Amino acid sequence: MIFDEAHSEAWTIRRELAAAMQPVHPADASYAHAAELLSGHSFRVAANSEPLDGGVLEACDLLVIAHPSEPRWESTTGIGSPQLTAAEQEAIDAYVRGGGGLIVLGETEQDKYGNNVNELLERFDLRLRNDTVQDYEHCDGAPSWIHGELVDGGRGSGGDLLAGVTAACFYRATTIESRNGARVLARTHRSASVPGAPLIVASEQGQGRVVVLGDSDLFGDDCIGSLDHAALWLNLVNWASRRAPAAPGRAARQAGEQPAVQALIEATNALAELQAPDGSLREDADRGEAAARVASVEHALGALAGDYPNLVAAAEDLRAWADGGYGKPDFTHSLGVFRPEQGREDGRMHLAFFPMYKQNGSPDTCFEAVLVRVPWPDWIAELEATRYDNPKFVPVELVAATRGYDSECAVLFPEQVAVAERQPNNFGAIFCDRESARLRRVATQAADLLQINLPPDAARLLSDPEISQQAYILWDLIHDRAHSHGDLPFDPFMVRQRAPYWMYSLEELRCDLTAFGEAVTLEREGLAFARNVQYAILFDRLLRFPITGPRVRNYDGLGGQLLFAYLHAGGHLHWTDNRLTFEWGRVAEGVIALRDEVYALYRAGIDRTKLQHWAAAHDLVARFVPPATGSRWVAGKREFAEVPDPRPYCDEVLPDEFPLSIFYTALQGALTPA
User: Fold this and answer.
1) How far from 650 is each of 337, 549, 642, 646, CA to CA, in Å?
2) Which position among 17, 101, 604, 633 has the lowest Cβ density within 10 Å, counted as fewest Cβ atoms?
């Protein structure tokens, strides 16, 4: 964000300049607190003292012009003229229509200050009037310190500009004229000297966005801490800032397009065509043709082994498969050599070649080649090293792959790989780009369908691949390690256990609620980005999980159903007037409360029998998600004898023990295409 100070503005983000402008009370000339608030929310904020030409504007996502004035009316920055040149106006116009953001803060008696911001605003069919509004009924002491009537911040994926804002005061304000259908966020009350007139408007212009306010004091150091001014400032800045979805990195694209990589993919796809579902060669396959295709893959692996040394072992395992008669493949050796967790560096590429099945894809085992890039920003690396140790966790982006990954598969786990005995368990690779893309696709459509009151930073999460992807990395980092931390009455991964599916639901939900709680703590400690993790967990758990997959022991879906029902019962969200409304100031409390209930269930489970623990877990879920009619597990109906091994009672669980509510049944039909 660039805060313009080159046009004799009455405000600065530089404390030392504010002290020079207003020696007695620097806060009356300072936006330093507003700038610091943005810096704490992942914005880079800079003061501008140069002409506003294309070069300056090209480098920023948001331009703020705060009350330019002649020095005879205000103490100013002392830099330049309050008049924007014609060239500057042209540059700002082109910048906004090309996707940039603009916030203009006007002032009472706008015409007297000698600036020409109205010439700029008229390009967008907006204008600051020459008013001084008074309101004796809705004021903060003085009648010119008026309380605005908040109107409509919007709904859906575009964001709610008034999310978390219930009151705002304007200190000697003018009003705004709009001829472009701009959204009015706040207006004067009917009791005001200028009744029903806009005080804040927001407008989309070309690909960019413009916000105009009739007062500049409400975000100054004296006032930004009052009422909900800080939340309003963050909302306006997040909404207006340029949206520039990140494209895949050039280096990653080039690596995926290398002829040697493409040759490996083509040769691997050809070999996979000859395989049976267990990975062996099909009985009807021509062995001569198989030998030729194996040779092609070997040649391709050899061409890439210099960059990816693990492919030497992969070629050896492939040769052993062929020489051994093309039976079920055993890639134990090359799986042990493939160690992406040891190369967890930002931008590092890894190339895997294995016979494997695909989670959420084909269950058949066949050869796959997968080129991935590791996103590992420094701040994530520091959190993993100092707080959330998880040495096996590897976030990856899919760069290029064989046909098996033309599916919903978003993981690369050792257990997917065909081996003769037990797989080495060295890493767990999560395709954070695929996970975050699904979130953006489904939650964006759901937000529009349900008219959710999305805060602008949440709307930005759903429109920005980089933000959503990094949110997923932190979420998965904490979630993954949570499986082995806490009061655990059983094997945390339940790999070798048979249990009713709601137990798997609660375990996955417990880990997500743990990640949510950690994100709340991180935000309180100053890592504002952690709020994106909270949004991601809420939207994925509430909007995607319950309606994804078949309704047969859908444990991920049930976790989302429980979270929704719990928040709804506690008044943390509402489905009213066919709109889904979150109480953003309270919703985190509801999530934490459910987490604590699950924690208590686990802690008590250590002292229960397995059957008692399963029954207590069913009761917890059933308090909020009604079990299906005919359930034999409902309290008061279950008549199971206490036995050392209660696993046969799993057969008494209905395929859809906790069916979808009316809300989710309707949502599922509407969001199926997404």
Assistant:
1) 39, 21, 14, 8
2) 604
